[in-house]
Amino acid sequence: MTLSDPTAEQWAAAVAAVRALGADDEIQLICHVNPDGDALGSMLGFGLGLRRLGFGRVRATFPGEFRVPDPYRSLPGSDLLVPEAEAWKNADLVMIFDVASESRLGGLAGLLADAPASVVLDHHASNTGFGGVRLVDPRAAATSVVAEQLLSRLGVELDSEIAECLYVALATDTGSFKFDLTTVAVHELAARLIATGLQPGEISRRIFDSRPFGAMKLAGEVMGRAVLEPGAAGGRGMVWTVATLDDLERYAQPPYVLDTLIDPIRSVAEADVSVVVKQVAAGEWSVSLRSKGAVDVSGVAVAQGGGGHRLAAGFTGYGEADAVVDTVRRLLDEYLN
Question: What is the reported pTM?
């Protein structure tokens, strides 16, 4: 489907959906499986905004194992988080954050289907158009941009706690403000957030520059097995590597430490496309795709049931790791030819 900025009618409908609720109504916030900084930051920042509006029954959750990555455990609003089994089953309003397709909701998809009202906040160009009211802006650098705009329309003034959540979301999804969607407006939003009293240096050290020694050793081993294929991706080059559950066990690390591996892999000068294949279970792999601009990797991800952006996307692959890489290689060639 073709997406455009949310219309005035969509913004008005989202505001109306929130304002129609009473203080004791249940509001369930949901983000995607294996949440990243934008998913958690947008959701928790908005949840704190709902509290400011006087709503006392707000819960936030995500599908799958209830484990928040260490860099995000101290985010304000973390007390809103509950395991998916404790989500409101008959919430008066369900709000979805940073989710491009219902498949990323896992076992929580039924809550969306049963909800009398729902609002989806997202910025993925591959968004499939699910949910009741859809605030999907593919030009936004992060879902937190959409969340902040809705909070503003609801009359919520930024405080340092809301701002910290939204700033972490913005900083992580822009790669520390270095990706293509980092516009003047993004820097202006970051300035407004910092003006609430944030310490961006401390946040940056906590989010980007702190990891266990075992995670560093693990990253070194996985990067050491990277393979460069200059002829792949139509001659634009592809670099890829694989991380297994055995790797995690050997270094006693949780799965989320693998999420940042795509950044050093994508820096390889000889390749436009970078791929990290991370084992989730026997025969199941989480695949991260990045492009420097010559290739739209979202097409590969969507073809495999995933989604994302032109320069950053992902999907779940099945079978042997080499077969998953073969599929990526084939789809890239088909797309480019």
Answer: 0.88
